[in-house]
Known about the structure:
The complex is a heterodimer. Chain A is 39% helix and 25% strand. Chain A has helices spanning 5-14, 28-38, 65-75, 125-131, 149-158, 166-182, 219-222, 232-239, 258-270, 287-298, 317-330, 346-354, 364-387, and strands spanning 22-25, 42-46, 59-62, 79-80, 83-84, 88-92, 96-107, 112-118, 136-141, 185-196, 201-203, 206-210, 243-246, 251-255, 277-280, 305-312, 337-343, 359-360. In chain A, the strands form five sheets. In chain A, strands 7, 8, 9, 10, 11 and 12 form a six-stranded antiparallel β-sheet that branches. Chain A has a four-stranded antiparallel β-sheet with strand order 1-6-2-3, with helices on one face. In chain A, helix 2 (28-38) packs antiparallel against helix 3 and helix 11 (317-330) packs parallel to helix 12. The longest helix of chain A has 24 residues, at 364-387. Chain A starts with a helix and ends with a helix. In chain B, strand 6, helix 4 and strand 7 (119-121) form a beta-alpha-beta unit. In chain B, helix 5 (156-168) crosses helix 10 (279-290) and helix 6 (189-197) packs parallel to helix 7 (215-226). Chain B is globular. Chains A and B meet through strand 7, strand 8, helix 4, strand 10 and helix 9 of A and helix 1, helix 4, helix 5 and helix 8 of B.
Amino acid sequence: MNLHEYQSKRIFAKYGIPIPQGEVATTPTEARDIAVRLGGKVVVKSQVLVGGRGKAGGIKVANNGDEAEALADKILGMNIKGLTVKKVLIDEAADIRKEIYLGAVLDRARRRVVLMASSEGGVEIEQVAAETPEKIITMAVHPFLGLRDFQARQLADGIGLPKDQINDFIKIARNLYQVYMDSDASLAEINPLVITGANKLIALDGKIVLDDSALFRHPELAEMRDPDEEDASEHEARRHGLSYIHLDGEIGCMVNGAGLAMATMDIVKFYGGDPANFLDVGGGAQADKVAAALRIILSDSRVKAVLINIFGGITRCDQVAIGVLEAINTLTVKVPFVVRLVGTNEEEGRRILAEANLITATSLADAAQKAVAAAQGASQSKNEGGAA
Amino acid sequence: MSILVNKDTRLVVQGITGREGAFHTQQMIDYGTKVVAGVTPGKGGEWAIGNVPVFDTVQEAVTATGANTSIIYVPARFAPEAIIEAADAGIALIVCITENIPALDMVMVRAYIDTLNTRLIGPNCPGLITPGEAKVGIMSGHIHTPGSVGLVSRSGTLTYEVVYALTARGIGQSTAIGIGGDPIIGTKFLDVLQMFENDPATEQVVMIGEIGGTDEQVAAEYIEKHMTKPVTAFIAGQTAPPGRRMGHAGAIISGGEGTAAEKMAVLTKAGARVARHHDEIAEMVAENVSK
């Protein structure tokens, strides 16, 4: 789950990381009031969960309340990469002397939280990694020890930070690590962390990504979720504990296991079809979850056929079959279903589905080919129907 | 021979009285696995699945029954504690089935168990099976058959698919292991490849990877330098939309984005045969058998 810039920076502030003074506005009038209160130059920043807001025209400087109001009017409602801007953050403008980068992230290979710093702030860290990897300094943190001051100092030295800022930098690094640990983040980054004309360090922009698996122990963070972050079907899927990603094809896929779900998409493509989604019903899915999954798949009107591929382990084929029947009986959408059930309780699952008259398959290659054919058949008969 | 589990495996089931724990304990017993104990705090002294004694702690279970392997079915919020408890009780092999364990909990757990003489498989994995000897996991036993192909995979259900296809061709397996798909896991491809290379009962290996991370690339280096047995590989996620699953910054410091194309290229260069889709895997394995 992604947090907005203003949410991330509020958390930073709570941990003693300096941020610019600022407030969130949802109307141009509010933006004006905030700008007047702050006095002087302000920055009007769109709050949407995508990168490249600046390039898209979603971040602008205003010299006074009038300008802030006019800019907010322009930015609110703006569409940035498919997302509508509903909030703007009005921050006092900083006197920027230099921009650096500081982030915390989980490094799978080292099995540690790693702090990363770079003298190249204000640009995406991916770009720095690709072009000048030597400008990224990393420090792995042992979970029993936490981030040590000497490690933060090494980061500061590594990016050539001037001596007067080192103590402030160490404090910020320690606090950022604490934010990361306390909120169960998978990413916490300050980009840019700026050195001001007055030689102060300040977090101008912030981003926190949370580990969804840990949200159960952070109800106050879970509440910050912006429902606009995901499309309606993805939101619905998450409510049912399903992992779903909407794609552009015509073959709906319901599979158990992320790996098999990906391999199923791969083989559909291999046989000339296009998957409409990635959907992992997860381990041990019960009938109601399976039915919900099918409803979500079929809410996409482009879906011309559904491929159900279940290899039972902790998931039991009979539960899947009950869910499939339930969905078929309650849904008005009629598209061909290709079903493949193998593994735990497969005989019972097949028996339950026998009366439903679905297309069945034994191997995945067979299932994929039948689904591709069914989808083509469905669009063919639709075309013929249109012609008649 | 085989690796990690066999006839001498004496299994303790943590979370034996839960719905999944009870169901799969029965399945494991039916397969012939020696389930010697169960652990559910507060239910010590009871019996589960007919005649399996239940203990309050893993330590008690080990002392009373000589359990040497543990399987964990407890919910995500209690699973880190269960792993640490098993490791602390001297269990040599811990298999954690539980999914959705917070990543930072696993950073801590892994740092602790690395100080002990314990191997963890998983979490978020289907476990492992040595066909005809022991099943320590949630896979369907009947699709497996004893033989000489070793399988290792990040994905549970994909492993079942390949095993199913192999068995249908009359090709048996030495041991099949699902290592789990989480960012922090106990045992990686490299560890399992080393074990298969040293296992006399394994003649060839199937390795099933996924997009994300760099464990397949690390494995490729080992295959190139040290493997004498043929390796057939597959990477799931060739058509997955980029950037939708993982925080990108993690991939950066590990070097590379971990795309399917990148992993397939590295494995091919290392001398593994890489299947284009997963139904090809069994065909390639069969070709090795008939050679």
